[in-house]
Input
Amino acid sequence: MTANTIPDIKSQAQTKMDQTIAALKNTLGKIRTGRANPGLLDTVHVEYYGTVVPIGQVANVSLLDARTLSVQPFEKGMGAKIEKAIRDSDLGVNPASMGDLIRVPMPPMSEERRKEMTKIARHEGENAKIAIRNLRRDANEHIKKLVKDKHASEDEQKRSEADIQKVTDRHIAEIDSLVGAKEQEIMAV
Output
């Protein structure tokens, strides 16, 4: 953070905390729940004319039903390569070709797998909380430096630290809410 004023520091801390929440939402969206989600295949890459590209660049991934994804290659010859890439991924799914369409059924999750996925969701939430707390610490350090350099008063420092704490608390509560919702989603399927 290279802010010169307290409002700049608070604004940057808020923005970075919002980015941390967005990254957590993205990560939680990729955790498998047993329910089909087109985002699950975002990590799968396919060889396309000598270049490895994400599956979304060579096929249309969509929902067929609650437990099945459909993958429609843009080119006829890509079906086998896409199917192999999905099968070789660490997702634990078994795609099946039906002409040009590739069906990817989501296997039901075992109790052990549900617990594992819940643990992963909690771990990601904890990492996000740590990131939020680090941002709070950095912002407070910058404010202390302004006070030390006589660019702000100690009263401003106390008010600002209280404001930053409120923003931090709000973001941590949102993380708890997101992780809780993901856990319920994992257990519900």
In short: The first strand starts at residue 45 and ends at 48. The beta strands are 45-48, 51-54, 59-65, 68-73, 96-98, 101-105. The two ends are 43 Å apart (CA to CA).
